[in-house]
UniProtKB/TrEMBL annotation:
This is Circadian input-output histidine kinase CikA. SUPFAM superfamilies: ATPase domain of HSP90 chaperone/DNA topoisomerase II/histidine kinase (SSF55874), CheY-like (SSF52172), HAMP domain-like (SSF158472), Homodimeric domain of signal transducing histidine kinase (SSF47384), Sensory domain-like (SSF103190). It is a multi-pass membrane protein. It catalyses: ATP + protein L-histidine = ADP + protein N-phospho-L-histidine. One of its GO terms (molecular function) is phosphorelay sensor kinase activity. It comes from Lusitaniella coriacea LEGE 07157.
Length: 850
């Protein structure tokens, strides 16, 4: 039943009741123990007090006894007394003793001679007329004994008792008698002693009370305690007392006197009652305080647990795992709360992790689907790209293979062969441009593209681009506007090649997709408030804008505009391009420290904007360029430069050897690096064209060995490599090469490189068709005008339309129809077409009509 009752209690009750029971039990035991101890202590203190009072009473009684002895001795030693006793002169003894008894308040005096005869006996007070049992003291006095004893009345009378002091009376020669001096031990005597202790006294003689300060002590039958025992509780009348027998020293043991000190127990009982009352109050106060304290303590203990229970219930029933138990203590409950909070956090973390995992799986599924769609789109884009690239590659290849086959047939005239070779050359240049785009995109995706800054003339670059695209825009009846801010510097240092490529790509796209209106290129400095604080003072930030009034781009196509192999709907319909121009342009811009953005509205046009960072340069920083033209020889020198070609491919050796020997250079060949070292040791060439990848010994090892020799440091070594990776340049230069030329190369690169390192000056072929500087353009064109006027009008109109549209292939086909006797006209038109100088063709056409 108690177990059921306890189980039904709340947590606070389960804590409160046991603690209260234990505390109250301990409090009761402690209170009773303290009460018992204090009670015993009071009794002990009272006994000690009684013992002390007994000592005081004993001392007071002994004082009276000693006083009695002194008086007895004083009387006995009185010369008159001893003389009168010796003479047995009773009359004189009485006369002498009477003043003494009055003076010393002596109750009893008796003098006997040495025969035992009583000479004098004086009494006063209560014993005046009482017969006394004094035979024993008479005999003792006769015999000269010093003795203290008692004398009692004869018969049934018990009191008063006389305390008698016996001593001898001596003459100078002998004992002449004895004297007995007595003190009545009455109630008055005890009252005098009580005045010192304030305690009642009772005097026993042979177990009978003969004197007492307490009247009831004489009327009650009670026995005195032994002087050797502790105080004894006795009841006199209706009162109880502690009775303590006082030991009387110096009195004969057979005197039968016992003095008892009576101490009322009432003060002790009152003290005990007050003590127990105080203990009871203390118990009640302690119990009440304990109850209140334990109540609040149990509540304080149970409250965190109740809060913990409530939060646990809230968390489990409502699945709310964000709640936390407030930690207010650092005890076990606090540790439990912390553990619970950690558990809740772990559960919440696991739930969040599970939820995140579910979301991640969902996102992963979406990403997989998106990736799948993207991969499919990429595959489609790559398929379309491969189809376009196949078309783009096959077109120049078809021209190259076709015209070389025609040339190999041998039934063409020299002029036709020249025209065909020029077509093959242009097709090869176009094919190289396509391959370079693909390689550039590959390097961009591999993160291998690097910046090659150089000093250049920005104004010249813009003028060149304007001339390049002027004819194409005129052919489509479009306006072309180039605007540059007046504060932009003319000379800059950045990657000119990449900047030119970006501008060409953007302008080409703008012209391609614009059918009416125009194209504008604007160049300026960025606003100062938008300028990047990281730009050094010597650096500037240029902003380029290419705007057109073309077809525009749909918003959903803009997001994929800069993705490789991706083309807009308009681009797909044009059947031109590879879809690499914009991605390459964007990466080039980012490499130059900027970014490219686009704004477009369908049917209204597009605006491409990009910014780049560039350093300022000066005219002195612009590298001198070698004159462009056909090199036919070198200027006269004392020593003809010796050129060594180290190349494992015979075709490449043959190409370089033919190119260099035709201008008068001394050339030798080696098949690999090992042969190259042997020829270098024996021939000591001034410059070595070193292929880097060869059997037996590659160009890297050969270069290191040559440069390791003291004389090899003077030899110029220029690396020839077909690698498209820019970082290979640094690796090659680290081996000791002095310069770097990529395959396929143009003859201008070869001659310019040798001019730079060997300080060569070339002889160039004069172009009579372009005239001397002193001749005016009009003078040169007059013969051409006459030759053009001889051509059919339909042919002239087709030439004009092809020039307006910038169709170089169509122009070259028209040139093939020019008669051989007008060879200068054919050659001039061919040169203008190869230089994209369609303005000159149109100008000649206009003059011919005049």
């Amino acid at each position: 039943m108690l177990q059921r009752f306890y189980n039904n209690l709340s947590l606070k009750g389960k804590i409160f009741l046991p603690l209260l029971s234990v505390f109250l039990g301990m409090w009761v035991v402690g209170t009773l123990g303290i009460g018992y101890f204090l009670t015993q202590r009071l009794g002990t203190l009272l006994e000690a007090e009684i013992e002390e009072l007994a000592s005081v009473v004993q001392y007071a009684f002994e004082q009276k006894q000693q006083l009695l002895s002194l008086r007895t001795r004083w009387v006995a030693d009185n010369n008159n007394i001893s003389q009168f006793v010796a003479q047995k002169d009773r009359q004189k003894l009485l006369q002498t003793l009477l003043p003494m008894t009055t003076r010393f308040q002596i109750d009893f005096v008796k003098i006997v001679d040495n025969n035992g005869a009583v000479l004098v006996e004086l009494r006063q007070g209560e014993i005046n007329n009482l017969p006394l049992r004094d035979e024993a003291i008479n005999r003792a006095a006769k015999n000269g004994v010093d003795w203290v004893t008692t004398v009692t009345p004869e018969g049934d009378v018990l009191s008063p008792v006389i305390l008698a002091e016996l001593t001898t009376v001596k003459s100078p020669q002998e004992i002449v008698g004895g004297i007995i001096v007595g003190l009545t031990l009455s109630d008055k005597v005890l009252q005098k002693i009580r005045a010192q202790t304030h305690q009642h006294l009772a005097l026993f003689h042979n177990s009978e009370v003969v004197a007492a300060t307490l009247p009831d002590a004489k009327n009650t039958s009670w026995q005195p305690p032994s002087s050797q025992t502790r105080p004894k509780v006795i009841k006199i009348a209706k009162e109880t007392y502690f009775a303590k027998a006082v030991e009387l020293s110096g009195i004969s043991a057979d005197a039968g006197l016992t003095l008892v000190l009576l101490n009322s127990t009432t003060p002790l009982e009152q003290s005990k009652r007050q003590l127990w009352a105080g203990i009871s109050v203390l118990f009640l106060v302690g119990a009440g305080s304990a109850t209140v304290l334990l109540f609040y303590s149990s509540r304080a203990i149970a409250r965190p647990l109740q809060d913990l229970t409530a939060i646990a219930y809230h968390a489990t029933q409502e699945s709310n795992f964000t709640v936390q138990v407030p930690i207010k203590t650092h005890d076990e409950v606090g540790v439990l709360g912390k553990a619970f909070n950690q558990l809740i956090q772990q559960v919440n973390f696991l739930l969040n992790q599970q939820q995140a995992e579910v979301q991640r799986q969902q996102l992963l599924a979406q990403e997989l689907q998106h990736t799948k769609e993207k991969a499919e789109a990429a595959n489609r884009a790559k398929s379309e790209f491969l189809a376009n690239m196949s078309h783009e590659l096959r077109t120049p290849l078809n021209a190259i293979l076709g015209f070389t086959q025609i040339i190999l047939r041998g039934d063409t005239s020299p002029q036709e062969q020249r025209n065909y070779i020029e077509i093959v050359n242009r097709s090869g240049e176009h094919l190289l441009s396509l391959i370079n785009d693909i390689l550039a995109m590959s390097k961009i995706e591999a993160g291998k593209i690097v910046l090659n800054p150089s000093n250049f003339d920005l104004y010249r670059l813009l003028d060149t681009l304007e001339e390049m695209f002027r004819l194409k825009t005129q052919a489509k009846s479009l306006q072309l506007l180039f605007e540059r801010a007046p504060d932009i510097p003319q000379y800059l240092k950045t990657d000119e090649s990449k900047l030119r490529q970006v501008l060409i790509n953007l302008l080409s796209n703008a012209i391609k997709f614009t059918q009416e209106g125009g194209i504008a290129l604007r160049v300026g400095l960025s606003n100062s408030e938008h300028r990047d604080a990281s730009i050094e003072p010597s650096e500037i930030e240029l902003v380029f804008e290419v705007e057109d009034t073309g077809a525009g781009i749909n918003s959903d196509e803009i997001t994929h505009l800069f993705e490789a192999f991706s083309q807009t709907e308009s681009g797909l319909q044009s059947n031109e391009g590879t879809g690499l121009g914009l991605p390459i342009s964007q990466k080039f811009v980012e490499l130059m420290g900027g970014e490219m953005t686009v704004q477009s509205t369908p049917d209204y046009g597009s605006l491409f904007r990009f910014n780049i960072k560039a350093a300022r340069a000066s005219l002195q920083d612009i590298e001198k360029t070698h004159p462009q033209g056909k090199v036919i020889g070198i200027e006269q020198r004392e020593i003809i430069p010796r050129i060594l070609i180290v190349e494992d491919k015979p075709v490449n050796r043959q190409l370089l050897t033919k190119l260099l020997t035709t201008v008068g250079l001394d050339v030798r060949e080696a098949n690999n690096g090992k042969e190259g070292i042997e020829l270098w040791e024996s021939w000591k060439p001034h410059l070595i064209w070193m292929d880097m990848r060869m059997p037996v010994m590659d160009g890297y090892e050969a270069t290191r060995r040559i440069k390791a020799h003291p004389q090899g440091k003077k030899t110029i070594i220029v690396a020839l490599t077909a690698s498209a990776l820019e970082e290979e340049r640094a690796e090659i230069l680290e081996t000791g090469c002095d310069d770097f030329v990529r395959k396929p190369f143009r003859e201008a690169e070869i001659f310019n490189t040798m001019a730079t390192h060997l300080n060569l000056s070339y002889i160039y072929q004069e172009d009579s068709k372009k005239g001397s500087p002193q001749e005016s353009k009009e003078t040169l064109q007059r013969p051409l005008e006459k030759q053009l006027q001889q051509m059919p009008s339909e042919w002239i109109e087709e030439l004009k339309q092809a020039a307006i549209k910038g169709l170089d292939d169509e122009i070259l086909q028209l040139i093939e129809k020019i008669p051989e006797d007008n060879g200068s006209l054919a050659e001039t038109l061919r040169d203008w077409t190869n230089d994209f100088d369609f303005d000159a063709i149109l100008d000649l056409n206009d003059r011919a009509k005049i």
